[in-house]
Amino acid sequence: MRFCPFAQRARLVLNAKGIKHEVVNIDLKDKPEWFLEKNPLGLVPTTETLAGELIYESPIICDYLDEFYPEKKLLPSSPFGKAQQKMTLEHFSKILPLFYKIAMLRKSNEDVSGHEAELKNKLSKLNEALVNKNTKFFGGDSITMIDYMMWPWFERLESFQLKQCLDGTPDLKKWAELMLEDEAVKATMHSADTHRAFQKSYAEGKPNYDYGL
User: Fold this and answer.
1) Residues with catalytic roles
2) Where is the GST C-terminal domain (predicted)?
């Protein structure tokens, strides 16, 4: 689905590694029967290989792509390096619900200041991780898998009205600016206005999955 951050993870890795692929977008409100026959869970992203193998869950898809197409590896070669990235991803996965909770509360005109403070606190810990590493990106001085795994939500900060949560996290802010220069990011991203338009249609119960086409 074009606006799904989890699906964007897979597209980021496909583009970063230069893997030839075909994207088939799914209407999540009206999933086609052929798709449900392939994946009864109806999850996106779902990847089908030329051999007909089906893989779902974005981190699993991305790990598979990195292993099956070993050129331009995105994961570290050392077991400890891989474990570090998985630990960072596990920590980040606990931040994600806050993005959606704040959006839902705003829709109901409820106070979100407490949740914003919590998000700022969690983002400050990511900032500390960059400070401690003293590198441009989370895996070193070049983009690796963990950067792509986290990026889709940072792309949406402005449309979620959460960009101010990066105030006070200068290293994380610089990381986000550097990510915008990446070719895979450029190839897969939408503007804040486009995200806002889709999010508005979604909030109204009529998601326009084809917006901008």
Assistant:
1) 4
2) 78-203
